[in-house]
Every structure is written in C-alpha cells, then in structure tokens.
Amino acid sequence: MTILAYLLVPFLVVAIAASVTWARNRQPTSLQSGVDSFRREMDALSPDAAPLHRRRTEPTGPGDTALGGRPATTAPSPPSDPPRRPPAPDSRR
C-alpha cells in the first residue's frame, strides 16, 4: 500500500499543478472576448493607426544621427601586437 502512495501523491500533485496552469492560461471563449480580439486586429491593420511612441529619426545636431542626442561611438580597435606568452621553462637540466 505504501508503494502505491509513493506513486499516487506525486501524480496528484502534478495533476493539480497542470489543472491550475491550464485554467489560468486558457483563451477566453465569450462572445465579447471574440469581438474585442477582432477589434484589436482591425485596429492593428488600419492605415490610420499611428503608434503611440514613435522615435525621432531626424538628426538634432551636428554629427548626430538617431541616437537621441548622443554621438555615435565605435568599438575600440584591437591592439596592434598580440599579447606575448612567457618563455617556456628550460627542460635542459
């Protein structure tokens, strides 16, 4: 009987967790939720729909592109000489 308990308890825990996860993440099925979803899709496809937050693309000063007032920077160049290894220990003893 105790062997069955070792199998039954984890199975019940997993089944409860899966049921809670399914219930929280399922899609709404009411008529109003379908209408709302359709309206969101039509608003997204509408040519009149303007994004709420649009970034400026014209430069604001000399040497400035679209970085919000900061000049463009480049990555540092690699050193001209590669790092040198220390000499190997002398094996002639």
Average pLDDT metric = 77
The ordered H/E elements are HH
Number of strands: 0
Summarize the biggest pleated sheet. Answer: none
Helix content: 40-55%
- Number of contiguous helices: 2
Intertermini distance = 73 Å
Quote the beta fraction.
under 5%
- Any low-confidence stretches, pLDDT <50, length ≥5? none
- The chain-level structural class is mainly alpha
Radius of gyration: 32 Å
> So what's the overall shape?
flat
Question: In words, what does this structure look like?
Answer:
- Helix content is 42%, strand content 0%.
- With 93 residues, it is mainly alpha-helical.
- The model has no long low-confidence stretch (mean pLDDT 77).
Summarize the SSE layout with pairings.
Elements: H1 2-25, H2 31-45
Give short descriptive properties of this protein:
mainly alpha; 2 helices; 93 residues; single chain; flat
Quick overview of this protein structure:
This protein has 93 residues and is mainly alpha-helical.
